[in-house]
Amino acid sequence: MSTWHDYFKEQGHAPDWPYPIRYDQEQEIDADVLVLGGGIAGCWAAISAARQGLNVVLVEKGDTVRSGAGGPGCDHWCNVPANPVSNVDTDEWAEHMADRPYCNGIGIQIQCREDYDCLLELEQMGGKIRDTGDEYVGAQGRDEKTKFMISPRYTRIHSYFPVPETEAEKEKFRKSEHKLSNVVIRVWGSTFKPALKKECKRLGVRIFDRVVVTSLLTENGVQGARVVGATGLNSRTGEFMIFKSKAAILATAGSGSMWLISTELGGYCNMMPRTVSGDGTAMAWRAGAELTTMENNGILRIATGYKHKWYTGAGDASYENVPIVDANGKVLPYPIQGWVDWGAMVPFPEVEEAVREKILKGEYALPFYGDFPAMPEVERNATWNLMLGEESTTKVIIKTFSNAGYDPSRDLLQSYRFIEGNSLPQWREASHSGGLLVDWDLKTTLDGLYAAGMQMFAPEDHSYAAATGRYAGRKAAAYARQVGEPKISGEQVALEKARVYAPVKRSSGMEWKELHAGIARAMQYYCSEFKTESLLKMGLGTLRRIEEESVPLLFALDPHKLMRSLEDLSLLTHAQIIIHASLARKASSTPLNFHRIDYPALDPPEWRKYLTIKLENGKVKIGELPLAFWGNMKKQYEARNKDYTGVYKGK
Q1: Three-state secondary structure readout of 564-630
Q2: What CATH topology corresponds to 29-73+190-298+428-482?
Q3: For 380, what's the count of Cα atoms within 13 Å in the CB-facing half-sphere?
Q4: Beta-carbon-side half-sphere exposure of residue 32 (alpha carbons within 13 Å)
Q5: Over the Cα atoms of the chain, what is R_g?
Q6: CA–CA dist 257, 568 (Å, integer)
Q7: 8 A C-beta contact, residue 60 and residue 37
């Protein structure tokens, strides 16, 4: 049948569940290193650990070949100062990138030191990282010797100058002699994930696809003790999985749908797939791990059914160098990403305001368009085929529009800029914000538990996930070699098994979509644009009532719906953590996208610090760390990686 409508019309009923149901049946798996999450970070972690000769198990909720936010592809490999075309010192670039409050200097240093090595290894695995077919000869940023496609936008960022603020500073910068950094490479990211899964299999990594991880197991079942494994649920058979390991790596990302209500009404247009539901954060919290920057969240500027970015769920980064024209063909001084020659990532407010004023005066006619036909052919092809064709959330454009007859050499592409209205402040995301606190081994505050990629606090991009996953894999492997055998608590397993199967013991009540909607509404009402002590406490109270009154009604009629139900429970826990962290920060902060009406002072000196949060014996504990608590990035990295050999461009 071609559609569900056709199936129901012919069959008159829903199809039977196509897999054997094995509720309550158990499968036990032993591993030296257990990797939880098979996205970019997880695959790299598994490969890295397996290369140390250890028994590695990887558990993934979807299918590892395309799972995760970067599964379908990526178009940029960012922060690669060690590449041969780069004009910057590796460690100085890392310091430059970490010169931001509330970033993750540990992860950034690892990324800058090792993501070029990742890229070269990807090429050996079969990933495509350079223009070997000479398809884009003559394109801006293409290096003839290496055939790397250096991003022409990102090269405009100067490595050592701060972004100028005044007109005098901007003019001085324009006239100054400054070199291009060349630290971002355009890549064929759709080739990466299949290559990674193939390498996992070649190295003997045992992959358990379609298994949602539900909890971390701790030694003797004690919260805060060494992590000795995890539990999971097969979302096709309903079988209960028990994983025992010497070391575990969490790589399940953050949460992408905390404030989103309806996948049908608003469309699930998000940089994160639906499977990114806070599972790892929730299970680490219950196990007693420490988190930080959990109060950080911002308006969702990716398409949500209300907020569009051209025609897809992607941001504008893929539309390299596309000129913008108004409805009458007048060229705007407004590049698609808003990039200008001093490297601003978004338009300066005065630029946006000037365009808006001209719209109101009738000098610019809406809607605006991307003028692909005006671009040189090689640049147009690089944007349309390489950038849009390789990025995970813009790839749909190529097939959909080409099938509809769109021709970028002839047709303009409408932009929704300015006609879409402002982002609704209650449509927010938490994926690129808070997460697990880690040390220089990417070890969490729990013995035996490591984190990588978007599972950590303040994560970055695709190459960051790759580099930190690869790093965590070798560190976890080293740990696993020197620790004793894990001991799992049967009582802890039994309690988790009862929690997991509770929804299938009921045949009516509340389904997962209703529960998800309730959680999202609570966050929209009480933890969005307007934050006060009273509102946040009302939000916490609402979430507690949902936990007490709605969760006991949750039912699932098949293993897939059971998986979705368990995701909702993770979302619920994640939401509570965010509100607890929001209550703890009694000041507003621009870098954290955090604004409290009752504490309006922006970043007062006494609040320029990381707040940490953890669960201990049922109580929420708040701590703090100074900014740049990681110390001297170069010295700290080198002290812990004396035996590491790789490409390095430094003094």
Answers
A1: HHHHHHHHHHHHHHHHHHHHHCCCEECCCCECCCCCCCECCHHHCEEEEEEEECCEEEEEEEECCCC
A2: FAD/NAD(P)-binding domain (3.50.50)
A3: 16
A4: 24
A5: 25
A6: 10
A7: yes
> Domain spans of the chain?
29-73+190-298+428-482, 324-415, 492-626
- Between CA 369 and CA 418 the distance in angstroms is 11
Cis peptide before 425 (omega within 30 of 0): no
Q: Supply the pLDDT for residue 172.
A: 61
Which run of H or of E encompasses 299?
Answer: strand 298-299
Q: Distances in Å between the alpha carbon of 375 and those of 138, 381, 410?
A: 13, 9, 11
Domain covering 492-626 in this structure, CATH number: 1.20.58.100
Strands (E), 343-424: 368-370, 413-415
- Give the helix ranges, DSSP H, for 89-211: 90-97, 105-125, 167-175, 192-202
| Tokens at 491, concatenated | 């009582």
- Residue-wise pLDDT tens digits, 259-297: 876 555 554 455 677 788 899 999 999 999 999 999 998
Share of the chain above pLDDT 70, in %: 86
Q: What is the pLDDT of residues 505-561, one digit of tens each?
A: 999 999 999 999 899 999 989 998 889 999 999 999 999 999 999 999 999 999 999
Burial 211-220 (b: 16+ CB within 10 A, else e): bbbbbbbbbe
Q: Which tokens hold the place of 529?
A: 């644009």
